[in-house]
Amino acid sequence: MALIDSEAGEIVIRLVYDGPPEAGKTTSLRALAGSLTRPTYSPAEDAAGRTLWFDWMEYVGGRFEGCQIRCQIVGVPGQRELTARRRRLIEGADVVVFVADSAVHETPRTLRYLFELRAMLGNRSDAPVGVILAANKRDLPGAIPLEELRARLDEAGWPVGVVESIAADGTGIREAFVYAVRLALDRVRELSQRGALPTTTTAPRSADELLAALRSADAAPDPAAAVVVEHDPDSLAAVLLREVLAGEQAASAASPERPPATGAPRPPNNAVPSGAIWPPVEGRSILSELSQLSLAPRRLSNGDWAAGLGSGWRVVSRSDATFASLDQGRTVLIQWARLHAGAADAISPRRCIVLADDGSGGWRLWQLVRAERSLREIVDGVLRTPTREAVVAGLRNAARLLLDADTRTSRLPLRLPCTLDSTGVSDGVAVYIGLMPDAGEPIAGPRPHRDLLGLLRGALEPFVARELRERGLVLDDIIGPLHHTEGIARAVSALLNA
Amino acid sequence: MANVKETLPKLMEIDGCLGCCIVDSNSGMMLGASGGGAISLEVAAAGNTEVVRSKRKTMKALNMNDQIEDMLITLGRQYHLIRPLTSNDALFIYLVLDKQRANLAMARHLLTTFERDLTV
Amino acid sequence: MPSEKQIVEAFEKIAAEIPGYMAASLVDLESGMTLGLKSTRQDFDLAAASAYNSEMVKQKLKIMKALNLRTVLDDMLITLGDQIHVIKLVGPTTFIYLAVDRAQSNLAIVRNALAKHVSNFV
Fold first, then answer.
1. Which of A24, A46, A232, B77 measures 20 to 30 Å from A106, CA to CA?
2. Of A23-27, A128-132, A308-312, C65-69, where does mean pLDDT reach its minimum?
3. Is the pTM of this model over 0.90?
4. What b/e sequence results for B46-55 when a residue is b if at least 16 CB atoms lie within 10 Å of its CB, and e otherwise?
5. Which has the minimum average pLDDT: A90-94, A174-178, A430-434, B26-30?
């Protein structure tokens, strides 16, 4: 249930402590709580002290890609009768720490529970969930040697990482936790790359919510699955891209020996002289990443040159961005760099500008912009969610982001469009994700006064009207309140800055 | 009072100095450079001033009311010394020293002197 | 990988050798989480500082890698007005973060103390 909460600047991940009964799950969790000085909460235990629902702990710490990490740490009940509860808790896991009693005679039961876990995780369709085996009670005699444990896991075709622990005195607890967080972050990274990392969720965010969810799941014959807003890999953008790529492949298959277009400039590459690229470090890092591809610039209908289609990068040079000498090019580059730097908080960060030897004695100025997920793709995803609440929340979020982008771009000395296609999200903030206008273009005056409601209506209505009608929702009801508070906020800010 | 052109040769004379430059941390671009391969100096300077900026942001986030006087990075066989200008903390003097030949204490002291004298 | 207990003990030894010792942690680079720490100051949020610094170090290493810089990052010493901060990589995935009161110490003392005990953290 990993999610990124941009308002709070947090990534939320769930670590589940699983394992056979009496292996030390609760003890491990409590030892971790002691080490991190956090309280734990167990809704109910039976007379023998066994967990009936779950053990719960939260910890906020660490950092990942500019966000704090909020860990929900949940211990499952081990008893066989509570297997359904265990399964539901595991369904929300981003990583599992499987606590096992190291006693040799416990090995068969350990393996049985471990493979049950594997089966439960195997039903997940999204990014894989990491598992760490915490071999607990290492201090007791008769503990299975680690090599043998690893061998048994290898044999079964599931070589999970193994950590030793003595939950009773805290040994190995912190280590297992940090290792688990790292695996969870791997998953977050994977989800993020697939565009499947949600920004809102109806999954439980507190122990009380989790308890309520489990209770209602127990009552209902069909477990009420937590609804998550997910990016649809079949979104319009993805479909179009696939078509284009297929077309390109067909074209190159048709004429495999096609020589480079005469007159086509050489694309930017790694060999960039000092002072010819901005930003100096990230730019070179971007070029190094792109050097894996063979860029073949092609001429667009307006005379500009473009390359890198399908690579996730837009590599573009305006038709007239050529210079006879490197020094002339540098002057313009520095001007453009200043423009970029000045707009830094309003534009997507993964971009660079570079001068490249054009192959005919001159230099050409290119911009390289990473293709980011646009608000349009996000809204498409929102419209596909089953519940009305999720649709309303998702659209409000998108509208808020659009207004945020409008605020940022309207402060700039140059005019950038503000639409669902030209806006994306970076580090939780709405930014312009398109190409930057030329340094040489005349800088337009301040943007005329904006009708915010009109902006939102104009941007969203064409795409969402039908879906909303089908669900009995009205766009103005959704975005109205936003526009109101945003209007006040802007008026206040204008007063303060006057 | 010395300018960039006058300061760079003085820095180059510090024992063990392999290269030096003045960097504008806002853009990462060098205002002037001397010695050491131009590209690697540009890359090192831009990258490490970014580290200083990152540290400043961290300090701000943690409500630490302090200034960075300098940063020393030990990289294999080199020392990289970064010192923000007291007159303009967006600008840095960046100095690369050979570990074997340099006297770190002396270099830091000289760097402080030249930095105070520099106006950009 | 040393246990949390061993880490804390190692920091205690280092603290004994650095007058002005304030706080130190062993930090996991990837997540920014601390594997063990020892602080003598309530007003210093060591966990948060460790997390922020992990981002800084990660970024630096990423750049070094992307540019194929074959040098090895040993440590970073940052001299502030009142404090000295040290970041020392002690393995491919961990680093020590140390904060010292500058009035009572200097770079040489700090580097020496760290060098002496760094093997305890690997």
1. A46
2. C65-69
3. no
4. bbbbbbbbbb
5. B26-30
How many CB pairs below 8 A link A and C?
Answer: 67
Dist. CA B91–CA A364, nearest whole Å: 29
pLDDT single digits (tens) A33-70: 999 988 888 877 777 777 778 888 999 999 888 888 99
CB-CB neighbors (< 8 A) of C78 in chain B: 55, 68, 70-72
Give the up-direction half-sphere exposure of residue A307: CA atoms within 13 A in the CB hemisphere.
20
* 3-state SS, residue B14: coil
Dihedral through CA A236, CA A238, CA A240, CA A246, nearest 10? -150
Residue of C nearest to A185 (CA): C31
**B8: Cβ–Cβ under 8 A, 6 or more apart, which residues?**
B20, B21, B22, B32, B33, B34
Considering only the beta carbons, identify the residue of B26, B30, B46 that sits closest to A281: B46
ipTM for the predicted complex comes to 0.83
| pLDDT tens per residue across span B68-119 | 999 998 888 889 999 999 988 889 999 999 999 999 989 999 999 999 989 8
Q: Are B46 and A297 spatial neighbours (Cβ–Cβ below 8 Å)? A: no
**Is the pLDDT at A494 greater than 80, yes or no?**
no
Q: What distances in angstroms separate CA A333 from CA A86, A105, A162, A361, A365, one per listed residue?
A: 59, 71, 53, 18, 7
Q: Tell me the shortest Cα–Cα distance from C71 to chain A, in angstroms.
A: 16
Residue C79: list chain B partners with CB under 8 A: 68-72
| From A229-238, A372-381, A451-460, B31-40, the region with the lowest mean pLDDT | A229-238
DSSP tag of C91: S
CB contact under 8 A, C63 and A68: no
Task: Label each residue of chain A as H, E or C.
Answer: CCEEECCCCEEEEEEEEECCCCCCHHHHHHHHHHHHCCCCECCCECCCCCECCCEEEEEEEEEECCEEEEEEEEECCCCHHHHHHHHHHHHCCCEEEEEEECEHHHHHHHHHHHHHHHHHHHCCCCCCCEEEEEEECCCCCCECCHHHHHHHHHHCCCCCEEEECECCCCECHHHHHHHHHHHHHHHHHHHHHCCCCCCCECCCCCHHHHHHHHHHHHHCCCCCCCCECCCCCCCHHHHHHHHHHHHHHHHHHHCCCCCCCCCCCCCCCCCCCCCCEECHHHHHHHHHHHCCCCCCCEECCCCCEEECCCCCEEEEECCCCEECCHHHHHHHHHHHHHHHHHCCCCECCCEEEEEEECCCCCEEEEEEEECCCEHHHHHHHHHCCCCHHHHHHHHHHHHHHHHHHHHHHHCCCCCCCCCCCCEEEECCEEEECCCCCCCCCCCCCCCCCCCHHHHHHHHHHHHHHHHHHHHCCCHHHHHHHHHHHHHHHHHHHHHHHC
**Residue B120: partners with Cβ closer than 8 Å, 6 or more residues away:** B3, B4, B22, B31, B85, B87, B88, B91
Q: SS3 for B8?
A: helix
Count of A–B CB contacts within 8 Å? 34
Cβ–Cβ below 8 Å for B29 and A274: no
Strand partners for A164: A135
What's the length of chain C?
122
pLDDT of A456 strictly over 50: yes
Q: Tokens in use for A252?
A: 């190159």
Q: Identify the three-state secondary structure at position C87.
A: strand
